[in-house]
Amino acid sequence: MKKGIEQPAAENPEELLDLKLSSPKKWAAGIPAVLEAGKDVFKEAGLVRGMEGLFHMNKKGGF
Q1: Cut 0.85: pTM above it
Q2: Which residues contact 14 (CB under 8 A, 6 or more apart)?
């Protein structure tokens, strides 16, 4: 391996910085769930690619 060249990590990096422990929510659906999923998807994949993925998953029978 040449000096100064880093090998890529074997896995995607995890962002586990600002973790907080709180009581569990009483629901896992609705507007808050949609907004949180959208934030994660758009942050990781971008607007167009994220929407394509969500539309692909949002079908009868899932993926």
Answers
A1: no
A2: none
Cα–Cα dist 59/37, whole Å:
16
50: Cβ–Cβ under 8 A, 6 or more apart, which residues? 38, 41, 42, 44
pLDDT digits (tens, 9 = 90+) for 49-61: 888 888 888 777 7
| Residue type at 15 in one-letter notation | E
Does residue 27 sit in helix, strand or coil?
Answer: coil
Residue 39 near residue 45, CB atoms below 8 Å: no
Nearest one of 27, 50, 48 to 39, comparing CA atoms: 50
CB of 19 closer than 8 Å to CB of 13 = no
